[in-house]
Amino acid sequence: MTAPAPARPRARRGEGDRLREDILAAAERLLLDTGRESALSVRAIADAVGVSPPSIYLHFADRDELVLAVCERHFQAFEECLLAAIQGVADPVQRIRRMSEAYIRFGLEHPEPYRIMFMGSPVDGAEEFSQEKLAAACGFDHVLAAVQEAIDAGRFRIDDAFLGATLLWSTVHGVTSLLIAKPWFPWPEPEVHLAAALDLCERGLLRLDQPQKPEKAKKTTKAKRP
Amino acid sequence: MTAPAPARPRARRGEGDRLREDILAAAERLLLDTGRESALSVRAIADAVGVSPPSIYLHFADRDELVLAVCERHFQAFEECLLAAIQGVADPVQRIRRMSEAYIRFGLEHPEPYRIMFMGSPVDGAEEFSQEKLAAACGFDHVLAAVQEAIDAGRFRIDDAFLGATLLWSTVHGVTSLLIAKPWFPWPEPEVHLAAALDLCERGLLRLDQPQKPEKAKKTTKAKRP
DNA sequence: TGTACATCAGTGAACGCGCGTTCACTGATGTAC
DNA sequence: TGTACATCAGTGAACGCGCGTTCACTGATGTAC
Lengths: 226, 226
Known about the structure:
2 copies of one chain form a homodimer.
Chain A (H helix, E strand, L loop, with lengths): L16 H18 L7 H8 L3 H4 L6 H23 L6 H18 L1 H9 L11 H7 L2 H13 L8 H21 L8 H14 L23
Chain A binds a DNA duplex through helix 3.
């Protein structure tokens, strides 16, 4: 499983920085392969690159800095993926759907990065991953903009765009993270699941002809199902 | 932070099993205090109980068995908490609300157990925490029953109770787990957040007078907001 | 009532392991004179 | 064109640490005779 060591040739004079890239790439691959952040040990990464452990310290102050750099890459990749999904889509509600689909897809394709970014402990590196960075990575600002646009166009019931974006994020994250955390649960097919979740967001569960405060009128109208 | 050692008196002849309980209790407290599963080392637990590390092995085969036992306790506590919340509530939609509120409350009050139970890696102890146990713990069956009841009463748009219960779980888990994972994000107040999420589930985002497939009619009707 | 003995509830010391990190070094390579 | 030298890109060996786990043991206590 852990390849012994490919033995990396020494870089030429001015090209020392290439090792930094190689380390990050190896760490990224290691994370995807093993699926556990704990697999990112300095020794394992050095092995994967084909270099001795102390070499890591030529480019990173300590292990934390390395892991943060790996995460930062994933954050960027995530944001790019989301942005690509809404390229040229004018309709705000449609943009929200596209971003949500891209969000889940990214999460399922990169479960470990997703886990570290959005399901990990807030303690490690909380300072580094500031609110703005996180908001950017998960496309929050773009969802917020789309929600505001939909509200302005009179498409949404709610009038608080920030709350709406938060709810959408919660919903999509809920589906994504449960699929990642409990893969053996008998979930619906991912597409069905996501489509249903988005439909839930858009249209809700209750019948349109029902009273909206059900506790006031218990089981009075037994509407027959279509 | 880590209290050195309270020094536990040796149990009397037939009461060896009391140590097992003490170990579990100490581990539970340790988990709540530190907020990290990695804090549950055999040595740390032994220290907290006031006993030597090998004593742990009188009652647990290895560390994994211990951690699983701790989790099992939390699973039970969670289920009891959810059941208590719907005690005597007849209306199914109301039951769903009550369970959701209890779910989030439990999650926020016991973030680390919640993290381990529902946000952790599926690898460790996946066999032990079978689908049925998980479903029981998170009250899935009770939500499922409530959804089915609501469907039978003609209260819900959907007709697939399992899908509905899954969506509710996803939604509530989404809010809970994001609050736990990203506590420094400028979330709405938890009650507002949850209420909005449940309202979202029930009634959706879109205006009721809007076409349901917005991609077919882009920005045609600029309904003015109330 | 006295005593030998089995059992119970633990303990002390040590094992091997992988970890992050440090330190003094090495050998190739470009550059100044 | 030749050579001394600074610099660059790393390496080998070792440090101390905390971990899970094992092993032989100890001392109190109940029980059989």
